[in-house]
Every structure is written in structure tokens, then in C-alpha cells.
Amino acid sequence: MARRRIFVERLGEDRAVLRGEHAHHLYHVLRVRPGQVFELSDTRRLYLGRVAAASASTVEFAIEQELPAGPPLPEVTLLVAIFKFDRLEWLVEKATELGAARLVPIVAARTEKGLAAAALKRAERWRRIAFEAAQQCRRLAPMDIADPTPLDQALTQAPGSRRWILDEHQDAQPQRPLLTPARDGSVLAVGPEGGWTEAERQRALQNGFAPVSLGPLILRVETAALAALAVLLYVNGDRSDLK
To answer: How far apart are CA 134 and CA 46, in angstroms?
Structure first.
């Protein structure tokens, strides 16, 4: 059985600590006690650690050795127009499990105004979901989640030389362009439930985004995002990168 992986704060060369609500969960729910062994990640390196002391507020570990962290994950950034929060939370969890590097919630022209206004308060919850999902699937670090960002800013600042915008427009190419590996990262923009406006399409093109289609069927936002993400990860790296 695989050891549970936990994100911790390093303290010097041979100690690590977990504080706050995560320590509370480990102590009260998992009933961790001194002597138990875990895999510890400080989001850069991976270690084998043994519980040295445990309380409801703090769990301390003695680091016993460094472990192989495995190959780095492909650098894939998702720009996702904000949509219904329950489904967006599910997308955050699954995109973390698949290996996306970061997710940027974007405010598009057809984003519901009420959702856009409430999104900033939800961002911390999305980060907690990504944190927990990353521990569960044994990533080295959680998926980064940005604060809600206007579309124009996200298009301009998106990292990576290969940029795609998912689009049902008739001029969009089939997904074949997604099958080209990217050396310095990929960016995938996924629109709102009402689709992109023509002005947004043009701004994406001006910022180096190529329109691609996943086929003739109209997919929900989370379905389209995960389907395209899976294609990109297949080309740029596979699930073995998570081990």
C-alpha cells in the first residue's frame, strides 16, 4: 500500500512541520501518532518523514531521507471562463488529478455577472480543493490557481509558446494541432457556457491563440477542458510523470 503524501513546511535540514487545519485533520481524523511514516513534499522536493510529535495544532516530522521526485509534470495552463461553482470545483479537482500546472479563472463577456462577482471569495476554496486533490493523487505540488482575471489580461499574460482556444466556430481546426509537443508549456483557453464573442475570438488570435475544435458535439465547459487537457498531457507527458 502506498504511503500517504502530505505537503509540509521545511524546518532546517532534518525537520518538517504541518500546522493549522491540516494538522488538525491529521491528528483528529487520521489519528496520526509518533512513529508513523509519511511521504513529505515541500512542493520542491520529496522526503520520507517520521512523526516526531503530534497535537491538534501542529504535527512535527523527522526527515529520514530524500526520495526521488519523479519527472516534472508538463507545463499546461488552463484559462477557464467562470461557470457554475459546483461544476467548477469538480473541474479543479480533476484537472489537479490529471496534472495541469495552473488554472486561471477568467471573466469573459458571457460570464454570469453574479458568478463573476462572487468568484474572488471562492478562490481560496478552489485552492483548498486543489491542495487536497494533489495530496490524494501524489503530486509534488498542488495545481496553482490564480485569482479571477479579466480575459484580456489572461490572454496577454498566459505563459507558453503553444496557445489554443477551444471554439465551436466553423473556422476552428480539428484537435490535431493539440498533438504537437510544446517545449516551454501549453495554454488552453476554455470559454463560458454561452461561447466566445467574436471580439474575444479576435483578441485571442491577436495574442497568438489558435482556435481548435474537439468535434461536432457541443460539450459542457468542464468536459471540454478535461478532454483537451488529457490530449495535451498525452502528447507532452503521461501519467508516469505523477509517480
So the answer is: 14
pLDDT tens-digit readout, 30-87: 898 999 999 999 999 999 999 999 999 999 999 999 999 887 878 899 999 999 999 9
User: Could you tell me if 197 and 231 lie in one domain?
Assistant: yes
Residues 138 and 106 in one domain: yes
Whether 106 contacts 153, CB under 8 Å: no
Q: Quick one: 10 and 80 in the same domain?
A: no
Whole-Å CA distances, 94 to 8, 131, 137: 22, 12, 10
| 195 and 102 in a common domain | yes
Contact 82, 148 (CB under 8 A): yes
Q: Would the pLDDT of 26 be above 70?
A: yes
Domain span holding position 15 = 5-67
Number of domains in the chain: 2
Give per-residue pLDDT as tens, 109-147: 999 999 999 999 999 999 999 999 999 999 999 999 999
Grid-cell match 502506498, residue found: 2
φ, ψ for residue 80 (rounded to 5)? -120, 120
Burial class of residue 241 in the structure, from the number of CB atoms within 10 Å of its CB (0-12 exposed, 13-18 middle, 19+ buried):
middle
Cα 9 to its chain centre, rounded Å, is: 20
Secondary structure class of 50 (helix, strand, coil): strand
d(C-alpha 235, C-alpha 74), whole Å = 9
> CA angle at residue 116 from 96 to 114, to 5 degrees?
125
